[in-house]
Please model this.
Amino acid sequence: MACTTLAAISAVLPEYRRPAGCTGRSSLGSILSFGLVVLALLTGGCGGGSFMELTSSAQFQQQVLQARKPVLVHFHKGGCTRCASLESAMGQVVNDYGGRVVFAKYLLKNVFWVITNPELQSKYGIDAYPTVLLFVNGRERKRWIMHDDIKSYRRALDEALHTPAKYIPAKQTSVEPVMHPAPPEPVVQPDFPDAVGQPTPPDDCNCN
Model:
């Protein structure tokens, strides 16, 4: 809503940017513009309709950690111009990957610098804003800290959507060793070849 208001006022501001003269319109326009910018930042910046707003650990558990699709979570803080700029720039990415990727955001530090969810802040070690985390199957896959290169987000989402299945080698069947028959035992020749089965007469035997 704040972004819609800003767009409407931006069209009117040229009228107030003319020389101030006696009316002081230039000063009024500057003050009005500054006030609306502050309002937009306090309400979370532009592009709020692109990301699903998360507000509790239970919601984070259900919408992020238990999601079947990849989830891109933008952790931001109130009054962060870079956070608002990143979320606005991600609008086209949301449109291109809608239905295949879940886009969510969590206001982890409000405009008064108070951490809104110490549990999440401690668990994921988030100390700088914006911090963007990509979750796949409930686990952190990639992290960006104060990073606004939209192409890197697209590459990571493409990889998450087209991750090849893990290679599982085919089960190896055991092969029984081939049993070769034992070689035959050598044949022992008898000491008396002339008369098989009969003892050989001694040389000094007088058999006549």
The first helix runs from residue 2 to 16. The first strand starts at residue 52 and ends at 54. The beta strands are 52-54, 71-77, 102-109, 131-136, 139-145. The helical segments are 2-16, 25-42, 57-65, 81-89, 91-97, 118-123, 150-161.
